[in-house]
Amino acid sequence: MATVRVALIQMSCEPSTEANLAKAVAWVREAGQAGAKVVCLPELFRAQYFCQREDHALFAVAEPIPGPSTAALSAVVREFRLVLIASLFERRAPGLYHNTAATLDYASTAVDHVAGIYRKMHIPDDPLYYEKFYFTPGDLGFRAQPTSAGSLGTLVCWDQWYPEGARITALKGAQTLFFPTAIGWHPSEKEQFGVSQYEAWQTIQRGHAIANGVFVCAVNRVGHEHGEVVHDGARISGLAESLAGRSAGEGIEFWGGSFIADPLGRILVRAAHDKEEILIADLDLDQIEVARQHWPFLRDRRIDAYAGITSRFLDDASA
Q1: Where are the alpha helices (DSSP H) in 1-67?
Q2: CB under 8 Å to 146, separation ≥6 — which residues?
Q3: CB 256, CB 278: distance < 8 Å
Q4: Which helix or strand (DSSP H or E) is residue 253 part of?
Q5: Which pLDDT score is estimated for 246?
Q6: How far apart are CA 204 and CA 182, in angstroms?
Q7: pTM higher than the cut 0.85
Q8: Are 39 and 85 in contact, with CB atoms under 8 Å apart?
Q9: What is the DSSP secondary-structure string of 50-73?
Q10: What's CA 270's distance to the chain center, in Å?
Q11: What CA–CA distance (Å, rounded) separates 22 from 44?
Q12: CA–CA separation, 30 vs 181, rounded Å?
């Protein structure tokens, strides 16, 4: 039996980027002490979710990969012989930035043990999620990363709604899909839509597990944020009154609820909506083979009939 212990770090984020990095290192160390061999941090864990506004000053938070965050995290990766997924604001070149997940593997000889990176492909632009201002869409495609703990696929937040990304990543050999996330409620909408929004988020990802016969690990943050950022000891921005539009001053209440699902879509573990915690599960990778034998979706795919999937919309229904 090939079993891998996975830990998801559901954390809240402080205004200070330095404090968040220190907190992340401490959480990863705790996960390592609990026997985890793969650990995943939430999306853009180094800062409060700053995409609630468009502010050029916030580009100062970006960093190269390898860089300060991977340097700090690599020590605990090495100490506990881990694989770690860390979502970062990548400064690729002057004026070119990505929302990037770095996979650190203690077995890698690369700088800071960075075995590979994935750049977020789907970039949202919605009220309080103004990511198109900051991030260039990924240009590396969907990837399965070989690691000392098996083949892992990483997609980031908004990617989790697209079956195409999960499918291609699984077809490339990923046994487990990780979705580092920063998603939550607009407070004024929570009462009416809160339950349905969270359930839709969970359901679509459980669907990826079932359709592809893989494990799915989704890790979110918690807490109510207005995107306040203190970097290198200086406050960059984040006043609630600076927020634009109808949601000014509300911020985002991140809904937590991180979870791990098996290849049949069953929830193995789920976190609370309102507190920090480490979510741990032992994944029996042999279940992938069993699930795909009994539900042979990959076998029965009609790859000869899917040409239309690469069109934006099939305007001519007869095509």
Answers
A1: 17-33
A2: 115
A3: no
A4: strand 252-255
A5: 38
A6: 16
A7: yes
A8: yes
A9: GGGS--GGGGGG-B-SSSHHHHHH
A10: 16
A11: 14
A12: 21
- Say what the pLDDT of residue 1 is: 53
Catalytically annotated residues: 43, 120, 157
Residue 196, phi-psi category: left (phi > 0), alpha (psi -120 to 50), beta (remainder): alpha
Question: For each successive 10 residues of the chain (319 residues), what is the average pLDDT?
Answer: 92 97 98 98 98 96 98 98 98 98 98 98 96 98 97 98 98 98 96 97 98 98 96 73 50 98 98 98 98 97 95 81
| Domains in the chain, CATH or no CATH each | 3-299 (3.60.110.10)
Q: What is the pLDDT of residue 319?
A: 53
Strand partners, 97: 91
pLDDT for the residue numbered 232 = 87
Amino acid symbol at 298: L
Token readout for 94 is 């002057």
**Is the link from the previous residue into 66 a cis peptide, with omega within 30 of 0?**
yes
Taking each helix axis from N to C end, the angle separating 187-212 and 163-171, rounded to the nearest 10 degrees, works out to 30
The single residue listed with the structure tokens 């700090």 is 72
List CB contacts of 44: < 8 A, sequence separation 6 or more.
50, 87, 88, 89, 99, 182
Residue 242 has which token pair? 């600076």
Residue 149 CB coordination number (10 Å): 24
Helices (H), 177-249: 187-212
Q: Which two tokens stand for residue 127?
A: 């009220």
Report the C-alpha gap between 106 and 7 in whole angstroms. Answer: 16
Q: According to the model, what pLDDT value does residue 237 have?
A: 64
Which residues, 6+ apart, have CB-to-CB distance to 182 below 8 Å?
Answer: 42, 43, 44, 49, 157, 220, 221, 254
Tokens of 67: 């860089």
Give the pLDDT score at 74.
Answer: 98
Find all residues with CB under 8 Å of 316, minimum gap 6, and list them: none
